[in-house]
Amino acid sequence: MSAEAKNSCSPAERLLDGYFRAKDGNRPHLLERVFAPDAKLEVRNASSAISFPAVTTGREQIADVLVRQFGRVNENVYSFYLSRPEGAVRQFSCRWLVGMTDKESKAVRVGCGKYEWSLAYEPVPCASALVISIDVMQVLDASTQRQVFAWLEGLAYPWSSASAVVRTAPKLEQLVPVLSCLVADVDV
Questions:
Q1: Are 112 and 136 within 8 A, CB to CB?
Q2: Structural domains counted in the chain
Q3: What angle do CA 81, 60, 5 make, to 5 degrees?
Q4: Whole-Å CA distances, 153 to 44, 45, 46, 98, 104
Q5: What is the pTM of this model?
Q6: What pLDDT was estimated at residue 161?
Q7: Does residue 68 form part of some domain?
Q8: What percent of the chain has pLDDT over 70?
Q9: Inside any domain, residue 139
Q10: How far apart are the C-alpha atoms of 103 and 90, rounded to whole Å?
Q11: Which of the two ends of the chain, N or C, has the fewest CB atoms closer than 10 A to its terminal CB?
């Protein structure tokens, strides 16, 4: 995000953008600008295709789980928020989409779910808690990389919409569970 774009964003947007920049770019130090030192992370995982601890407490532990350990296994990570916070909200819930490759097998993972952010603005803007619901995580063959990443690279990063995701998705049978999960969020 350019300095000009950062200045035009709300504090909530800057926090959320910082989270993806840290996670997707494997930059754990950036989480110092996102989470409070005693922040809490809860993961509600409905998928067996990826795993995280159910509860993690503390910014350093969150950085370890969501950036360091995640980055040891995954690469080419593209994450998207499917709506934006308006103003200095204290609570923000939104759908998300992620695509990535497994470093070892080169398999593609595409998933979606919901974020529930708890934000504070004093003494500095930060997240005090994050609940991540992983609704669907599909594993696709490595041969789908070109199609999947062309799609993900065509979406606005990090702010997109369910309608853009569904409308531009490649015609791959393995993506149907992800797209079906998001289709409820698309205005028909």
A1: yes
A2: 1
A3: 35
A4: 27, 26, 26, 12, 22
A5: 0.92
A6: 96
A7: yes
A8: 94
A9: yes
A10: 36
A11: C
